[in-house]
Amino acid sequence: MSILSSVEQMYGIKIQRSRQMKDIHKIETANTTYCLKPYKFPEEEIRFITRVLSYLDERGFTRSQKVYPTVQQTAYMTYEGVSYTLTNWVHGPRPEFTKRIDFKKGISTLAKFHTSAVGFPVTEAPPARIRYEGLSDEIAGYKKRLIPYRGTAHLVALCEEVSHRLQQPKVREAIAQEQKAAVFIHGDYNYPNLIKDKQLKIHLIDFENCSLHVRMKDLSHLLHRNCLWNGTKMLRAIDYYQRYRPLSTHDLHLLHALLISPYHVVRNIRIGGFRSAKRVIPSFMHLNKYRRELRSLL
User: Fold this and answer.
1) Cα-only R_g, the chain
2) Which of 86, 142, 208, 258 could form a disulfide with 220 if both were Cys (CB 3.0 to 4.6 A apart)?
3) pLDDT given at position 295
4) 288 Cβ contact list (under 8 Å, min separation 6)
């Protein structure tokens, strides 16, 4: 039996057309277009991902995908040892964050998502997806990645400073409050995982990196990816985020610590090696300017 025949049987649908796009299938019936997505995670993590999506739906957040249950009312199906979810297909292009209007919509949508991403039933999260205390290890990993390369001593020192800041009382309180509120994050919030519909509303897709974690992780990721070493642009984006979801003083201290980390350099090393990373390494002068700009967060 083919994968599509299995989908028809498991979900009680009749497929009229299908198209494979990378690892997913776009499936069309007479009335609905679906997204069939495979996962290579343990089943407990797949259950968590689908539970996050259903939880958002229960809270009235309409900008994430809807999980369709099988005929047996399970949140995913298995075919030849691989688990698949069936969700709605969100029609539209990716937003272009080089366009100011799209970037602002991306920021406001993130703030609205974060407002809903609270109160998750922690007992339904596997240990591998509870990551509130993982920031220090992450920064230590950045430092280890940078040490072998020449010209990165100032970035290694930056990692050491971030590690120190993560232990400061205000930052520890921010992390503790996030954990107490049982918040969760998307985990890879940026334009490749967003869709803009005909009404120009932004929708979130690809929740495979979601976890119980501090929401400033999502925001710092978005800013690092789209405002590289530009503190002034970051501050404007943070102000716009706060129109939809105000941040506490503790949140801002945590965000500041995350923003001064050399995330984007390490990301480029991982993807393309140090030669690729060289183009995003700031000079001492540029880094000092960036840090002066970000001090206003504190």
Assistant:
1) 20
2) 258
3) 96
4) none
Q: Are strands 24-28 and 33-39 parallel, antiparallel or unpaired?
A: antiparallel
**Sequence-distant (≥ 6) Cβ neighbours of residue 106 within 8 angstroms:** 95, 97, 191, 194, 202, 222
Within 10 Å of residue 298's Cβ, how many Cβ atoms?
A: 10
**What sections of the chain are H helices per DSSP?**
3-11, 43-58, 100-116, 135-146, 153-165, 169-180, 216-226, 231-244, 249-259, 263-272, 274-277, 284-294
Question: What is the number of residues in the chain?
Answer: 298
Residues forming beta bridges with residue 71, ordered by sequence position: none
Report which of 59, 55, 65 is spatially closest to residue 87, judged by C-alpha positions. 65
CA 267 to chain CA mean position, Å:
14
What is the dihedral angle through the alpha carbons of 211, 42, 76, 218, rounded to the nearest 10 degrees?
Answer: 20
Whether residue 22 has pLDDT greater than 90: no
Tell me what pLDDT residue 289 has. 97
How does DSSP assign 19-67, residue by residue? EEETTEEEEE-SS-EEEEEEE-S-HHHHHHHHHHHHHHHHTT--SBPPB
Q: What is the pLDDT of residue 1?
A: 79
pLDDT, tens digit (0-9, with 9 covering 90-100), for 221-236 = 999 999 999 999 999 9
If DSSP codes are grouped into helix, strand and coil, which group holds residue 18?
Answer: strand
Q: Summarize pLDDT for 48-82 with one digit per residue, the tens.
A: 999 999 999 999 999 999 999 999 999 999 999 99
Among 270, 192, 259, smallest CA distance to 227 is for 259
Cα(224)–Cα(260) distance, integer angstroms: 9
